[in-house]
Amino acid sequence: MSLLQTVNETILLFLPLAVTAIIVTAILWIAHVFLIQRHQDDGNERLFPRQLAMLTLTLMGVIAIALALPVSDSSRNQVIGLIGLVISGVFAFSSSTLFSNIMAGTMLRVTKPFRTGDFIQVGELFGRVVERGLLDTEIQTENRELVAIPNTLLVSTAVTVTRSSGCIVSTTLSLGYDVHHAQVETLLLQAAENSQLTDPFVQVLELGNFAITYKISGMLVDVKSLLSARSNLRKQVLDALHGEGIEIMSPSFMSQRKVPDDGKVIPVGRQPITPSHTENVAESVVFDKAEEAEQRENAKAGLQAQIAECEQRLGDAKDEQKELLQQQLKMLKDQLKILNDTPVEQAESPAQ
Fold first, then answer.
1. What keywords were assigned to this record (predicted)?
2. Distance between CA atoms of 139 and 130, rounded to whole angstroms?
3. pLDDT at 3
């Protein structure tokens, strides 16, 4: 009888802990199914808040289990303090681990140094932002590759962001001292204007032993055509200089080649040839996923603004107008839901 009584007391003692553990496990499993498992195709951008919610629920579950331990109050407080110390230690000393990337991702969401669709450069990597996740940020490079950059690297390294309002496009070249800089400056400015750049300017970067280094720059308003604009500027520079008989060649190389002294290395066809492809074809091929992601974010922002405006009008509307506004509000919310539930590769901007 005493043994049975002891077993019953032990069961009653550990029963709250077992019930709490079962409830916490069930809640975490259900939350994982609804928050993560059913939205695996949404990408890191939309999974970010869901992952944060899952992490918060997990920490709350650990604390709930600690509170249900069959120990004295002082021991329970020590266990909770130990859990807090471990969590603090993980966040403090994990400079290159999971939690440091989570903290860095949260910091990027707060500071907002860039957004989806922006051109950024991190070290030698250059591309457009596709997704901003909890652990990393995905960009699409000039080779159409998708590169995942850890968030800790974005926080600890200088990130160059191309402004959406416009950027400077430039190229450099070296010419001999036999060509006057005023003539070169005029031709380079003409090349920049022909490549549709605004406010062009020329700089002399270096006076070398055998050549002068020039730099031609101009403002590009449509930053989405950045790759094409760089290539087009170089083409226009070639056409402008070669059209005036100015040779783009190192003088040291000229003294070594076996050609007549008055010979020039200039292409035979000096007239620019109209390309058969359309403009900005490079960007449409290279940054296709980044472009879709940016269009999706812009469409979502537009729908959210329309929903907010419709809700405001609904509060001030009369009875005969409320039904129409409610139908419009429902339609906008349905469009936003469809946009949120559609993967990036299949998302299209809804009709406005």
1. Cell inner membrane, Cell membrane, Coiled coil, Ion channel, Ion transport, Membrane, Transmembrane, Transmembrane helix, Transport
2. 5
3. 65
Residue 203, strand partner residues: 215
Q: DSSP state, 273?
A: P
Model pTM score: 0.55
More confidently predicted of 108 and 317:
108
Domain presence at residue 264: yes
Is it the case that residue 175 has pLDDT exceeding 80?
Answer: yes
Tokens of 307: 């929903």
Q: Give the total number of structural domains in the chain.
A: 4
Q: Are residues 298 and 339 in the same domain?
A: yes
| 290 burial type by CB count under 10 A (0-12 exposed, 13-18 middle, 19+ buried) | buried
Q: Is 213 exposed, middle or buried (0-12, 13-18, 19+ CB in 10 A)?
A: middle
Specify the pLDDT at position 348: 42
Task: Please list, residue by residue across 223-241, b when 16 or more beta carbons sit within 10 angstroms of its beta carbon and e when fewer do.
Answer: bbbbbbbbebbbbbbbbbb
Segments forming the whole domain that contains residue 313: 287-346
Other CB atoms within a 10 A radius of the CB of residue 87 amount to 14
| CB contact at 8 A, 101 and 117 | no
| pLDDT tens column, 81-113 | 888 777 777 666 655 567 778 788 888 888 888
